[in-house]
Amino acid sequence: SDDVDGNTLCDFGHRMPLKKVKYLVAEGDLVVDDVRVESDDVEKLRELADNWSLYMPPEPPQQVLQVGDVVPELMSEAMTYYEPKLQLDSPAKPLCQRLPEVMAPGRVVIVSGVVEPKPYRFHVNLQTDVGDTADMGLHLNPRFDTKPRGVVLNSRDRDQWQQEVQVPGNKFPFTEGSPFEIQIHCQEDKFRVLVNGTFLADFPHRIDCSRIDYVCVDGSVILDRIVFA
């Protein structure tokens, strides 16, 4: 029987002999405050004390991602854990939408849609204002017109474009007429960009994230949904 705060949650039948059970493992989004094993049967409690061990799952190693790596924990299936603060369905282009809050670590912007049949370029900008002279924390610019095709990342500060970062073209993730999902995760020191659940690039913060409160999209795409969470 499983109890939560003194109330029975569910009953679950034994599927193996109890004497084979030796570990209690707790993982996930919780902070362990206290673990106790209680029983009215003193002998059984002694048996449990002899057989049980404390197991602490090891910390996962820092993952160095390469272009094309799948990052399942950040795929769209995980969106059930986000609470969208903004959601726009089938928005028109050009889009320049003010966010309900400024950008901050832990926030994510998701842009989904379909690439047009004869694409040229499109962009997703995280910027500080509307207009062509607004500063940008991130300019994400897939280019179909170059050889090879590629994705360019950049930023703009005080109306000046900064140094471009070109993503290796051998993993260009966009295809004419095909759907896509871009996730831009704001982390402490960078933006992490995923396309269709696959790592594309990291881009360092070049301006203060707290200045960013607009997402702007235009170009050779048909937009399906914009989410800020």
What is the topology?
Blueprint: E1 2-4, E2 7-10, E3 23-24, H1 42-51, E4 53-54, E5 86-89, E6 95-98, E7 108-115, E8 122-127, E9 136-143, E10 150-157, E11 160-161, E12 165-167, E13 179-186, E14 190-195, E15 198-204, E16 214-219, E17 221-228
Parallel strand pairs: 3-4
Antiparallel strand pairs: 1-2, 5-17, 6-16, 7-13, 7-17, 8-9, 8-16, 9-10, 10-11, 10-12, 13-14, 14-15
In short:
This protein has 229 residues and is mainly beta. It is built from 1 helix and 17 strands. It has one helix at residues 42-51, and strands at residues 2-4, 7-10, 23-24, 53-54, 86-89, 95-98, 108-115, 122-127, 136-143, 150-157, 160-161, 165-167, 179-186, 190-195, 198-204, 214-219, 221-228.
Give the key terms.
Jelly Rolls; seven-stranded antiparallel beta sheet; 229 residues; six-stranded antiparallel beta sheet; elongated; single chain; mainly beta
Describe this entry's structure for a reader.
The protein has 229 residues and is mainly β. It has a domain of 134 residues: Jelly Rolls (Sandwich). Strands 6, 8, 9, 10, 11, 12 and 16 form a seven-stranded antiparallel β-sheet that branches. A six-stranded antiparallel β-sheet has the order 5-17-7-13-14-15, with no helix packed on it. The protein has a two-stranded antiparallel sheet with strand order 1-2. Strand 1 and strand 2 form a beta hairpin. The chain starts with a strand and ends with a strand. About 7% of the residues have low confidence.
Order of helices and strands: EEEHEEEEEEEEEEEEEE
- Quote the distance from N terminus to C terminus: 37 Å
Strand content is: 35-45%
Major sheet, described briefly?
7 strands, antiparallel
Report the strand count. 17
Helix content: under 10%
Q: At CATH's second level, what is the architecture of the domain at 95-228?
A: Sandwich
* Large-scale geometry: elongated
Uncertain spans, ≥5 residues at pLDDT below 50? 54-62, 72-78
Number of contiguous helices: 1
Per CATH, what is the topology of the domain at 95-228? Jelly Rolls
- What integer is the average pLDDT? 82
Radius of gyration: 24 Å
Task: Using the coordinates above, name the CATH class of the domain at 95-228.
Answer: Mainly Beta
